[in-house]
Amino acid sequence: MAVLPIRIMGDPVLHSPADPVGEITDEIRTLVADMHETMDVAPGVGLAAPQVGVGLRIYVYSYVDDDENPWRGEIINPVLWMAPLEPGSPDPDLESEGCLSFPGERFPLRRSERVLVTGADLNGDDVRIEVDGWRARIMQHEFDHLDGILYVDRLDDGDWKTVQKIARKRGWGRPGVSWLPGVDDLEG
Q1: Which domain holds residue 108?
Q2: Which of 86, 95, 142, 187 is catalytic?
Q3: Which residues carry out catalysis (predicted)?
Q4: pLDDT of amino acid 186
């Protein structure tokens, strides 16, 4: 397996809808294994193929809850259904998230509390994932990547301006910028 470079917010692959996966080949299986390794080294709780420069509808996820219950997998060609969003402002302590494509920062973002995701696994078998809470947040965040949306695109105006300042200061708003987990230090 290999750790892959993660694209930063200005890269065009992050802002374009990803293509569906046709056949699940050995190349797709290797990509998924590499994505798991990259996510683990980063460290992160999810990683979408566009984040590693591959415009395909695939993401991986890994999360351990407060009771130490592990949850890990991948989904190919996912379809997402969400419960209606609760109105109001996000709680900065409970609803903040970050992104490996905008590393080192976290911003509050309201997400749906419950989701259903369907798709396929690496064997081509149907997958159905019904989750709530933080797991639902992970599913929505990674699914957004497949539609060319970064979580910073969903922030309110004040936080969006802060994101733009950070991106300019760090030189992240241009194509081709990436970082390699376990090697690069992108903290400010």
Answers
A1: 4-177
A2: 142
A3: 142
A4: 60
